[in-house]
Specification:
mainly alpha; about 55% helix; extended
C-alpha cells in the first residue's frame, strides 16, 4: 500500500526493487521485522492498516481495483507500448519444481518456467475435473 500511495502504481515500477532492497532485503535477519517496517514507512506496524483494508466492502474493492488495472493499461498504451505482450519465458536463475507429495509434476529444467507453470496448471485442472465428476 505504501508504494501504491507513494508512486501510484507497483507493477513495473522501477522504484519498488531499490526501495525493498534498501529498507528490507539487505538487512536479512540482522534487524527485527518491526524495525524494518518502521524504517520503511516511518510508522510502527499496527493492525490499523489491515483493519482499514478489511472495512472496505468487497464490491467496492473490486470496482476500485478494476479501475486501477484499467488505468494502468491506459498508461501503458499512452506510452506507446500498446498492450503488454506475454513474456516468452521468465528466467528466475534457479530451478523451480512443482510437486504433489513425492511426485514432481513439472520443473523449469524441462522447458522453462512458463512451460512448467502450464504443465502444473493442466495437472491441477485435471485433478479438479476428476474430483468434480465423481
Amino acid at each position: 500500500v505504501l508504494l501504491q500511495k507513494k508512486d501510484g502504481y507497483i507493477v513495473d515500477n522501477p522504484n519498488v526493487g531499490p526501495t525493498l532492497t534498501n529498507y528490507y532485503w539487505k538487512w536479512g535477519n540482522s534487524k527485527p521485522f518491526l524495525d524494518l517496517v518502521k524504517e520503511l514507512t516511518g510508522k510502527d506496524l499496527t493492525g490499523d492498516a489491515w483493519v482499514d483494508c478489511l472495512k472496505e466492502p468487497v464490491a467496492r474493492r473490486i470496482v476500485r481495483e478494476k479501475r486501477e488495472y484499467e488505468e494502468m493499461l491506459d498508461k501503458i498504451k499512452a506510452q506507446g507500448s500498446g498492450t503488454p505482450e506475454a513474456p516468452k519465458d521468465i528466467d528466475l536463475m534457479m530451478e523451480v519444481n512443482f510437486v504433489d507429495g513425492d511426485e514432481v509434476i513439472s520443473s523449469t529444467t524441462d522447458g522453462g518456467l512458463l512451460a512448467a507453470c502450464k504443465r502444473f496448471e493442466d495437472f491441477v485442472g485435471a485433478r479438479v475435473a476428476s474430483a468434480t465428476s465423481s
